[in-house]
Specification:
Layout (H helix, E strand, L loop, with lengths): L1 E5 L15 H20 L7 E7 L1 E2 L2 E2 L10 E7 L10 H5 L4 H32 L20 H14 L3 H20 L1 H15 L10 E2 H19 L1
Antiparallel strand pairs: 1-5, 2-5, 2-6, 3-4
Helix pairs in contact: 1-3, 1-6, 3-4, 3-5, 6-7
Amino acid sequence: MRCEHPTVNTNANLGTRTQIDKRTAYHQAGHAVAICLGNRQKQLPDVHFQIVFKPQARNGQQLGRSPRNLYQYRATLEGGCLVQSLPHSFADATQALSPLDQGQCRRAFEADVANLLAGSLAEAKYVALRDGKPFNATLGYLGALQFYGGKAAMDTITEYLECLVPDQAGRMQKLAGLFLEAYSFINQPSNWGAITALAECIVGMQTDEAHSPIDCEEVATFLEDYLAASVRLTG
C-alpha cells in the first residue's frame, strides 16, 4: 500500500529549505499516529512503516533542484498495514482458523481501514480549522474524502471491504462504522495534539533531512516523548 502527495516550497529561504505543505503533513501525520497509537490501543502488533521523501516527478522525470534553485519533493508513507496481502475472500482465507484467530484477523483488517481513514480525516480537520469552519462528520463524510488526498486510500479501502464483507449493504455499514471510529480517534484531544506535533515536525524538516526516511521507530519515539511531555504539563 502506498499513499502519495506532492510537496511544495515555502517563500522563505527557498535555496536551502523545502517544506511539505501542511495538508500533506497532516495527512501523513494522521495516518502515522493512527498506526502507532491506534493499533496499540487495540492491542494489535506493531507494524513497520516509513515516511519517505523523493524528488518530485514531472513528465516521467525525477527532479532534484529546479532551474530556480527550488527543491521539490513528494512524501510517501510506505508500509503500515497489518494485512500484508489481501486474500480473495476473508471468509475463505480464515475458515480453518479458530474463532479467536478469526477475530484477530478481522480486527487487523478493520484497523488498517480505520488508519487509512484517519489520514484523510486529519487533513480534512486541518483544512476546516485553517479556514475557520467547524469540523464534523458531515464535512468529512466519505464522499468528500477524495478531496483530502484520500482517493488512493479509498481505492485500497474498497479492496479491503470487498474482501471482508460479501454484500454491498454490509460493506457500507462496516465502512460507516470505521469512518466514525477514525473520526472519533483524531478528535480525541491527546491524539489530535500528537498529530499536530508530528505534522509541524514534518513541515519544519530541512532540505537535507528530506533525503532520509522517517522510520516508524523515530515516529514512535517522537510520540512517546510528546505524550510524556504532555503528561508533565497537565500533571
